[in-house]
Sequence to fold (262 residues):
Amino acid sequence: MGPHALVDVEMSFRVTKPGPAAFVVALAGGAEQEEFSYPAPPRQVAFEHGSRAQVLDLPLGEHVVRYRAERAVGPVEAENVSMEDLIRYTRPSRYCPSDRMGGLALSRFGDLPDVRTKVEAIVRHVGEHLSYVVGSSSPTDDAVDTYLSGQGVCRDFAHVCISLCRVIDIPARFVAVYAPGLSPMDFHAVFEAAIDGQWYVFDATGLAPRQSMSRIATGRDATDTAFLSTLGCELDFLGNTVLATVGPALPEDDGSGLVALA
Fold:
């Protein structure tokens, strides 16, 4: 048997007003084996890029939702960039206000010789400029806020990289992933950039090897990839645990190669 990724997620919450909620925790495109544990079967909603939401009707009280999956991992063929991608992922978005970061991007990266060199320079710069500080990010912080503060978490690193890419007309998109090797273990955020007409994954945090990552959801920024959305219910989120592993061994990633995300 070749390398396999294992995912085990558990979320607990207290519902104070009953109604539906959407959970986006399933591996994009499905898995060889997976189980979504809850007393009532979920309704599945499909989105772009293989993302899937499980919609549950939640009654009052405390509840636990669990998701388990297993899937083979290995090199994959890079996805082609469509004309729709080219238009959508070069525009500013809620957390990636690229229209406010033009001076920085153009002065530092605009004259570099090719797209790959530009993206790799952006990743290095963001990794050196920002400090990874757990709990430092506010839900309202966009890429400009993060860059000025000099610190953030994985979603903030991705937002800054995406914004800088879009300024110089490189399509870039946000990806929520499971990342074996991440410590502390949790949901993780990275970004994909378009190089030579294909999508490749980058991570300015360098906290986990890209070769072991599994896609959950893809979009313009974190707005499109939230793992929980209330759709009329009200709840208190009590916490979650995430476990993502890959065997037989964790791959090494020196950051120098192009890696496509499954």
